[in-house]
Fold this sequence. Notes:
alpha/beta
Amino acid sequence: MPDTPIHYFSPDEDSARWIGFPFRDGDIVISARSKTGTTWLQRICALLVFRTPELPHSLTNISPWLDWLGTPQSNVYAQLARQDHRRFIKSHTPLDGLPVVDQVTYLVTGRHPLDMAVSLYHQGGNLNRERMRELTGQPNSRPAGDKRPPLHEWLVGWIEQDVEPRDSLDSLPGLLWHLTDAWNRRPVQNVVLVHYNDLVRNLEGEMRRIADRLGISVREETWPGLVEAATFARMRASAASTAPDPSGILKDPKAFFRRGYSGAGEEILSKDELDRYYRRASTMAPPDILRWVHHLV
């Protein structure tokens, strides 16, 4: 592992904002690519830290996104400095781009790449791009309207993208780069991998596992309320306070929680296209990682 974090930069995010961040013992960093369960894990952390379904503020307020250029770095640092609860901070940066500190726990989410891609496509249509460019200081260079191709055509093109992983983290190579780095670190006690499908299939079991890894004790009679509050249906119902919508970048916060279960990619592609996907993926990561990512173990 490199001693100096890799610098990841895009028009919306900058991993250099982590350099010099004053960590506290017990901090939690959620390192997840877009649409792999970031918000779900933030919600779970909030419920475990506060041990109540009645959270004190919106999820964006209690778990800010440090990488995002839409909020000045000084504002995010000050917001986190004011917090007196155990902090859990959102990041879309892979672990090799973050300061890795022994006293901090790093939670990394994985999801079948095809499901991630389909969610990413729909999310793209729900973003107010003009507002995002205004917040991040980008020129308004794109024409109005969504000019993307239909979903099937877009997804086939996404599978075929031949890009440098570190330059395109929401691509197939980028996602597998992020997860391969985390997978290789999993023997370390403070790196915890969480798969989206496990949250779908066994939410309570995963919440209990995460609580154990974070050293959080929850009274047995409190668990049912926490688990219910972490369900996808409950998150959708409380989208106004749960969806990641700093400064109004979502057209419809409820649409952020579109589906909540897996298999979308395989529903869209033909057998030949699926075979092509799995062949491409097999060139980008070792078999043990792919078995986990594709949830075959």
